């Protein structure tokens, strides 16, 4: 079987399994993403190992699937931004700042404290904290979109908090790595901050002044699906710019691109075209790909208690930290809980931070294994926890007795 036929076979299985898992998940009252994540775990090396079956000889097949999945998460976050109004998101900036900041500080502090109390090497404890501070909001964004509450106060606050979270984790990571370098730590931090500011300035300037004109000109041209094609090109460039210029996650760039496109008259056309493309192909590959990248068999049994401790800190740290930030921003207790739960998933962002620590020799293999377990569990539990939190009935408004 040729490499192309192997790819076609694996993609067919992935998409079919994703849709079946999503359907069964909705039948038991859970978001479809929960079923897709579980199916991915079953198809991965933990059980079936789809990309390494006996007749699969292409050694690059797993990497190809992973890259297609990365396109899926970029499209997912672009569509999340496209659903929102920039003015509404700016209106929740106070909540986003508080939640994003406290949602990083508390888990990082708890991780560092837990590492010190359990006798970990200081560098390991620091990187454990940094990994716990990361958030991957793509899982929560998909769940909120399914429940049709992405435009709610909680949805707006959650997505804004994720941007603050990304910025703060990158700054802390850069700061720590710079201190391990050649003594130019302060200059390195200034460079990181300057690159972030430059990215946001260029992205917003392009989105506000040039993008509407470019879209109008493209819409007038006799090009098949020209508007949608241009949207794909620009969202990919935003993702590239976020990584290369801003030093941030590409999903932050594509989310910002979606916000910029939401201001254009062509936003509905783009939404319809990309929604079909994303959810019929790329997004299922992304969610299944998360399971394909994790091998439960490789988790270190001797580090089970450390894994359980990290999982507990990961869930409580984000829920309490981001939730407290939302409460300080004048959210109700229920809304604060919902936002805090939405920040729990670490997903691919947590793995990226942990991989940096492993490559730099600042994480032990056993601790990295425990972190992988934490990332897997937090990714799996976030959708059902979020669904349950939104099912809690709101308290009735207080009734004031008439005077006299």
TrEMBL record:
A Pfam family matched in the record: Na_H_Exchanger
Molecular-function annotations in GO: antiporter activity
Domain Cation/H+ exchanger transmembrane: 16-388
Compartments where found: Membrane
Keyword annotations from UniProtKB, A to Z: Antiport, Ion transport, Membrane, Sodium, Sodium transport, Transmembrane, Transmembrane helix, Transport
Record's bilayer topology term: Multi-pass membrane protein
GO biological process, alphabetically ordered: proton transmembrane transport; sodium ion transport
GO CC terms, sorted: membrane
Record-annotated membrane-spanning stretches: 6-25, 37-56, 68-86, 95-114, 126-144, 156-179, 185-209, 274-296, 302-327, 362-381
Keyword Thylakoid attributed: no
Stated family: Belongs to the monovalent cation:proton antiporter 2 (CPA2) transporter (TC 2.A.37) family.
Name used for this protein in its record: Kef-type K+ transport systems, membrane components
Lineage: Bacteria, Bacillati, Chloroflexota, Anaerolineae, Anaerolineales
